[in-house]
Amino acid sequence: MDARLHDLRSTKNPKARIKLMNGHFATSNSHLNTYIDMSTVKSRHNNARETAKELSHPYLNTTSVDTIVCLDETSVIGTFMAEQLSDSSSMSLSAGNNISVITPEYNQMGQIMFRDNNQRMVQNQQVLILAASLTTGKTVSRAIESILYYGGAVCGICSIFSAVTKVAGMSVETIFTTKDIPNYQAYVSYDCPMCKAGQKIEAIVNSFGYSKL
With the CA atoms of 122, 29, 111 and 63 taken in that order, what torsion angle do they form, in degrees rounded to the nearest 10? Predict the structure, then answer.
């Protein structure tokens, strides 16, 4: 673990915490000046459960959810969200629902797809999209297109961190925003000021983590 990583805890729930590291990082869509490590909230069950509570809260009394599509390795959080939303002892609109928690695949064209056995969990279902981090919203836009293609309806978008407030006209519910990380910047690769200044890329980052160069 890089010693430069430091904790950022949610003011609403300190167990919903991420780690930050400043530098020059590259994703498939952009260059970043801040790496956000989410391994704690995505992998440790106590932290994942508390994170799920915060992400579920906006949907409890407003949205009926049949399926949660988990992007960016968020299936542990998604499972706890399904438990929260379907709790029959609560006033949730999804109380009693047998909520499906699924992870899509990517084909060779980079399109998001669902195998035949999972398509029934999308078709004619109210689908909530869960992501770890939204920088530009491009991946979620592809997820929306895929869900609509397979006959589902997108009922919400949520993310642990989001640099955008809306995707395809839909509000993004999130725990951390750029207000929590005020120096966070994302750039298209051809117009990255760090590249122009000769600052080398330190690592390639994606939903699995980071790999130093």
Answer: 10
Place of tokens 């869509």: 29
What whole-number distance in Å separates Cα of residue 25 and Cα of residue 211?
Answer: 10
Sheet strands (E) in 28-88: 31-37, 67-70
What's the mean per-residue pLDDT of the chain? Answer: 93
Q: How many Å apart are CA 210 and CA 23, to the nearest integer?
A: 12
* pTM as predicted: 0.91
Q: Residue 42: which of 85, 9, 7, 78 has the closest Cα?
A: 78
- Name beta bridge partners: 126: 153
CA distance to 27, 132, 198, per residue, from 165 (Å) = 20, 14, 32
Confidence of residue 213 (pLDDT cuts 50, 70, 90): confident
Q: Which domains does the chain have, with CATH numbers?
A: 6-212 (3.40.50.2020)
Give the pairing type, strands 209-212 and 203-206. Answer: antiparallel
Enter the tokens of residue 50: 């508390």
3-class SS of residue 94: coil
Strand intervals (E) in the chain: 6-9, 17-26, 31-37, 67-70, 100-102, 105-106, 112-113, 126-134, 153-162, 166-167, 170-176, 186-187, 203-206, 209-212
> What sign has the CA pseudo-torsion 186, 187, 192, 193?
negative
- For 36, the token pair is 């956000």
What pLDDT digit, counting tens, does each position of 83-93 carry?
Answer: 999 998 888 99
pLDDT digits (tens, 9 = 90+) for 127-158: 999 999 998 898 999 999 999 999 999 999 99
